[in-house]
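hiii, so i know i said id send this last week but things got crazy w the move. better late than never?? heres the sequnce for the chain we talked about at the cafe, plus the structure i predicted for it. fair warning i was half asleep when i ran it
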Amino acid sequence: MLDAPAFTYDVTPGTITSLKDGSMCADDTRLGAGVRNDGFIDSVPMIQGLIEAGYPVRFLGDPAFHEPLSLATDKGNDDPELDAELARIITQMQSDYSLTLLSIQHFKNADGTSEDYTVAY
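okay and structure toks below
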């Protein structure tokens, strides 16, 4: 990933298992601590959505990872006009803060607030 910030993994696991997707981990957690798992790692927006949906989960400490979300086009895309228009739209949304407002609306902070935590580049 281009321009991704440096990071380290600060986890000392017991037994690690991998399931098909994060929703399976969350559903297993609904069975109770220790039944199928004691916890799981997922993105902040995913966990926040689970909390809002009533799952018995909570945030523990700082995020284990940050997930920069982005816009992508098909690798075979050979349409410079489309690329330029998408870049123009994102730049405009950054300058008028509509991108920030959408982020706040859809991706809340770990404490459930919608304070501005985004950075426009």
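btw The longest helix spans residues 80-95. thought thatd interest u
miss u guys!!
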